[in-house]
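Fig. S4 source data, part A: sequence.
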Amino acid sequence: MRKTKLYFKGSYRKVSLMVLVAFLTSLGLAQAQELTEAPKNQIRPEIKAQIETLQQEVAEKGHTFTVGYNPAMEYTISQLAGLVVPKGWRKNARFEEMDRYLTATSTSFDWRTWPGGNVPVRNQGSCGSCWAFGTVAPLEALIGVHCGKSVDLSEQYLVSCNQSGWGCQGGWFAHDYHEWLIPTGKGETDFGAVLETAFPYKAYNVSCGGPHAHPYKISDWRFVGSSNGVPTPAAIKQAIENYGPVSVAVCVGSKFQAYRSGIFNANETCSGTVNHAVTLVGWNDDLGVDNGYWILKNSWGTGWGEGGYMRIRYGVSKVGFAANFVVFSGANCPDSAPAPFDCTGATTIGLGTVFGTTDGGRTGDVTYACSGQAEKGPRKVYKVTTSSAGDLIATLSNPSVDLDVFILKGCSPANCAAYGDTTASLVNAPAGTYYIVVDTKSGAAGTFNLTVSLARPLPDLSGSWIQMSPNSTGKIVYTTLKVNNTGNATAGRFRVGYYLSSDGSKLDKLLGTKTISSLAAGRTVYLYPRFSSSAGLRGKYLIAKVDYLNNIVEKDETNNVATGLVSLKR
């Protein structure tokens, strides 16, 4: 439910509404609670039969959850689950490989226990707008935590005002409209989230009716992990702990729809890879770090599941697919926008070195979203425009006082994208306009040299063995090699060489090669070479050299070798 518990939004089901009215009339109640269970004689025969079948299946398979009637049973899955995975969505997606800096060690975590983090469960009704609710839910929680206020953001704005062809018939994660994308074709003049009071939820496709006010904006958003569909549990946990509730996709079937309580552990299939957007607000490693359960927040009202939530085992029904997070901090709160920050007087510069001073610059406390730290000023603001993509680097030298440097994607501390005490580096920066700010915590004016450069986009190839399985004789080994491009440019045609080694370093024999036509930045390819030897391979080393002919110029030429030992055990 969104505003009251008296009715559902949108195209509400007539039968259930009649039942509710009759129930209220007969008892003379002034208020009604959301229906969580209907008397057996009021459940439609086909739904009753479906529930009985599901209950029998759950019992026979020993599942650890219960199913039964809930209001979502009145809709079809196609009405409830409207996430549509765009073709080639990974190509231009931005990924954050959380596995590189895992620090989350808690065996359980729940954002609902944080002050302001427990946002009411919403109800999408019969509109397939789960993608909009999955987009909005994390931001609402972060606003509650960082701004200290409970807000209800408009999902209808995303449904009606997007220019991506999405609506009640389906859509995809829409954070771009909260970060930078302005649907000018719908009459909007700004980006950001819209309040529910400004555009209430209708549960069907209505006109945009813009422009609207956009008081809340995010600084950034990223997908978790690499380009694989479902990140590791450890990576998702790290994203939840670092950034807040995480939007994810899941495959919804009839058992998920009828879920009442317990830990959901039924792998279901659906049309397509996944079909529904939800939010993960926490976890519990009750059976170990790789076999715990997520705390999943749905958008089917509090009458579904455990008050609108589900406990679901890691990896079940592809939960976690396309996991993504938003970046929002106190600097993004509308009432904390710092007056001392102003870009109107920014000095326009090009690539190269300039001498500067913060003397006479704007003063007053400013908190940058990317660092979370406050700077007192005075500060100097520069504006630089790049004509090509690359790593945008701002470096300070010869500072007379303790200074920091920041790179902003827009004229606001909330748009901070990179920072450092001497160097700020924005990797994979698209061509465009950026603001570079030199600031200080001490409040003392100072001089400095600022060098702005754009590093040439280069690929960075690396490889790792993730499987090495000998057969019973040890004469055949089945392997899987993961090849990554973590650089910011596509790697053209290159070859991977496979070697046999007696000590793990010496390349004794070339066993074969594999040619890769190209590998885009941020992408991964998996190779499945099979090796055989009449002498047996147990105790031998297999070495893979990515780009072994050195055809590709890379950022790092030292990480191209993967070494693996064939197990001695049978």
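Fig. S4 source data, part B ends here. The longest helix spans residues 130-147.
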